[in-house]
């Protein structure tokens, strides 16, 4: 029932509609090579799972409502009928239980894809993710590989309260042994999920439920079953020369909107879609900062010990002499997520926040 209520927010709520409007205003500013069609993020994830399960019989899916209900967000739609209950496994509401079973299966050479209905519920399973999955390869001197993917929606949705709105990018990215990916567009979702499933190490795959219904142009290359994106490589979504803006997941859309607003004031912003949180593409970020001489980091998570803080440190260590202005950090408020819609909006970054920070960095603020 909880999954049905959550899904109704995305499929029928105002937030997905408003994001669609933002999306349509930004299409012209994005570069997609030879875009052949549009695909929703939901369909991109579904097709990636389907193709990887078809290509490798060791891949299977487990989680709450992934089978008969076809996924709380319909990411696993049609897969139970195609692959059967042995490979699309409905589980009880016990994250610690099915995450542990998944890790054990990975020890024995299978490739589980474990879905959390929300990554907030991964707190029930964090012992298996960190102690059982992330550390086993190192502690076994390389004898135990753990090819497992933990995936599901991460971060704030709309009106679901503090217990269901937290961003776990910085949490999991702080742990050696894990790879942490966070897609934005449909090509990101397809290419990164396929890469995660094929990877021999445990991967935390952080999606955003407000993006599931969003459609993006996809290239012919991305539609090929062999398509795969490299883990650890960021993408420059928009080139610029005046200020660098880094973001991941849903915040990339806000950064692109902010860049469009800044262009009207004569500021040419470069927007970097991080894609991979661990490993972090420090080289691309630093190369951009050495060109623009300014940096604004954007994330929806808490400010303290966040992803933006790590990027700031990297730039200070490697490119401090190139900075012409203090680094600006945009993040969620340092409070549990409010439930009230007006307070929730104040607690998460907005495009206007990014614009103001970029203008400060360019010494253009009034």
Descriptive report:
This protein is α/β, with parallel strands linked by helices. It contains 15 helices and 14 strands. The chain has helices spanning 2-12, 14-26, 41-55, 79-83, 95-107, 126-134, 136-139, 169-173, 186-198, 220-223, 251-263, 282-292, 307-319, 341-347, 351-361; strands spanning 35-40, 59-63, 88-90, 111-115, 149-153, 179-181, 203-207, 215-219, 235-238, 243-247, 269-273, 276-278, 295-298, 328-330. The strands form 3 sheets. The chain has a 7-stranded mixed β-sheet with strand order 3-2-4-5-7-6-12, sandwiched between helices. α1 crosses α2 (14-26), α5 (95-107) runs parallel beside α6 (126-134) and α12 packs across α13 (307-319). The longest helix is centred in the first third of the chain and has 15 residues, at 41-55. It starts with a helix and ends in a 5-residue tail after the last helix.
Topology, element by element:
Layout: H1 2-12, H2 14-26, E1 35-40, H3 41-55, E2 59-63, H4 79-83, E3 88-90, H5 95-107, E4 111-115, H6 126-134, H7 136-139, E5 149-153, H8 169-173, E6 179-181, H9 186-198, E7 203-207, E8 215-219, H10 220-223, E9 235-238, E10 243-247, H11 251-263, E11 269-273, E12 276-278, H12 282-292, E13 295-298, H13 307-319, E14 328-330, H14 341-347, H15 351-361
Parallel strand pairs: 2-3, 2-4, 4-5, 5-7, 6-7, 10-11, 10-13, 13-14
Antiparallel strand pairs: 1-8, 6-12, 9-11
Helix pairs in contact: 1-2, 2-11, 3-9, 5-6, 11-15, 12-13
């Amino acid at each position: 029932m909880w999954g049905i209520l959550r899904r109704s927010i995305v499929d029928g709520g105002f937030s997905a509609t408003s994001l669609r409007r933002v999306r349509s205003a930004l299409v012209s500013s994005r570069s997609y090579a030879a875009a052949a069609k549009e695909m929703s993020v939901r369909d991109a994830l579904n097709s990636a799972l389907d193709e990887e399960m078809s290509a490798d019989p060791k891949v299977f899916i487990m989680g709450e409502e992934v089978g008969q209900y076809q996924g709380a967000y319909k990411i696993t739609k049609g897969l139970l009928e195609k692959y059967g209950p042995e490979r699309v496994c409905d589980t009880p509401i016990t994250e610690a239980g099915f995450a542990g079973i998944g890790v054990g299966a990975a020890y024995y050479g299978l490739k589980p894809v474990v879905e959390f209905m929300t990554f907030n519920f991964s707190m029930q399973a964090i012992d298996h993710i960190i102690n059982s999955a992330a550390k086993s390869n190192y502690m076994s001197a390389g004898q135990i590989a753990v090819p497992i993917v933990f995936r599901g929606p991460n971060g704030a949705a709309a009106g679901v309260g503090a217990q269901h709105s937290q961003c776990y990018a910085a949490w999991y990215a702080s742990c050696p042994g894990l790879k942490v990916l966070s897609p934005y567009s449909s090509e990101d979702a397809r290419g990164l999920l396929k890469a995660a499933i094929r990877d021999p190490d445990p991967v935390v795959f952080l999606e955003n439920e407000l993006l599931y219904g969003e459609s993006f142009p996809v290239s012919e290359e991305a539609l090929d079953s062999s398509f795969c994106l490299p883990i650890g490589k960021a993408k420059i979504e928009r080139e610029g020369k005046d200020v660098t803006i880094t973001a991941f997941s849903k915040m990339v859309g806000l950064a692109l909107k902010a860049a469009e607003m800044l262009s009207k004031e004569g500021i040419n912003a470069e927007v970097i879609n991080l894609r991979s949180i661990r490993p972090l593409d420090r080289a691309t970020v630093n190369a951009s900062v050495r060109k623009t001489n300014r940096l604004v980091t954007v994330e929806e998570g808490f400010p303290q010990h966040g992803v933006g803080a790590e990027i700031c440190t990297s730039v200070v260590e490697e490119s401090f002499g190139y900075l012409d202005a203090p680094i600006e950090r945009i993040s969620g408020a340092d409070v549990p997520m409010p439930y009230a819609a007006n307070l929730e909006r104040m607690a998460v970054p907005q495009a206007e926040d990014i614009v103001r920070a970029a203008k400060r960095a360019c010494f253009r603020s009034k």
